[in-house]
Specification:
Rossmann fold, about 35% strand, 5 strands, about 130 residues, five-stranded mixed beta sheet
């Protein structure tokens, strides 16, 4: 299995992604983000890349976007993993074209990623 939900509460989700990410698994992540935006007005997600092997080579990626933005909702996405994936993750997420805050942290900076995700909020699944 490529995606494993570690923890979730309201608009916050902590997910581990391993091996190759498939279109159908990615669409599940996308649906989770869209529901959080609809229900709570925001979406914060921590995505840990564990033994990540990239993206599957299959049709359907063209129609996949991560969290539709309307400019009014605040979202944060933190990736934690091997730094060799940083540029590809940013390209895949369209970081340069989005208002959503997207950051990448090396594996050893999991605590920093959690702290970044819960800036400006008092309660969070990311606060230890």
């Amino acid at each position: 299995m490529t995606i494993r939900l570690i923890k979730t509460l309201d608009s916050e989700n902590w997910i581990k992604v391993s091996d190759k990410l498939t279109v159908s698994e990615f669409q599940k992540l996308q649906s989770m983000g869209e529901l959080s935006l609809e229900w709570f007005g925001q979406f914060r997600v921590l995505i840990e890349l564990e033994d990540f092997q990239g993206w599957s080579r299959e049709p359907g990626w063209v129609d996949s976007f991560f969290v539709t933005e309307d400019g009014k909702r605040i979202s944060k996405v933190a990736f934690v993993g091997d730094e060799k994936w940083k540029d590809e993750v940013f390209m895949f997420m369209g970081k340069q074209m989005r208002k959503t805050a997207i950051e990448f942290f090396p594996k050893v900076q999991l605590a920093e990623a959690k702290a970044w995700l819960c800036e400006d909020i008092s309660q969070s699944i990311f606060i230890d």
